[in-house]
Amino acid sequence: VEAALKKTRPGVIYACGPSGMMKCLAGMAEDYGVACQISMETVMACGFGVCLGCAVEAKDESKYLHVCKDGPVFDSRDVRL
């Protein structure tokens, strides 16, 4: 991926998979100034954000995002991985 970033400089990276992989891709995207969209996978019991089962920490540490209603796709700069 890093070789491709050096060679082509895409406008955006789309990622879905293990959180460690997405964290690595998000870091590379930030290093190369490329936007990164990540698809989060969590337990979604209610689908409305009421049960809080799908809450993920936002980069703004004072709030959480709900994968079921705010996502499941997020800008990697908005979510703490």
Return the average pLDDT rounded to an integer. Answer: 93
SS summary, helix count: 3
* Computed structural class: alpha+beta
Supply the number of structural domains: 1
Major sheet: 3 strands, mixed
- Pick out the low-confidence regions: none
Order of helices and strands: HEHEEEHE
Question: What order do the helices and strands come in, and which of them pair?
Answer:
Blueprint: H1 2-8, E1 12-16, H2 19-32, E2 35-39, E3 55-57, E4 64-66, H3 67-70, E5 73-75
Description:
- With 81 residues, this protein is α+β, with helices and mostly antiparallel strands.
- The chain has one domain (2-75).
- The protein has three helices and five strands.
- It has helices at residues 2-8, 19-32, 67-70; strands at 12-16, 35-39, 55-57, 64-66, 73-75.
- The longest helix is centred in the N-terminal third of the chain and has 14 residues, at 19-32.
- It starts with a helix and ends in a 6-residue tail after the last strand.
Summarize the structure.
With 81 residues, the chain is of the alpha+beta class.
Which descriptors apply to this entry?
81 residues, two-stranded antiparallel ribbon, 31% helix, alpha+beta, elongated, single chain
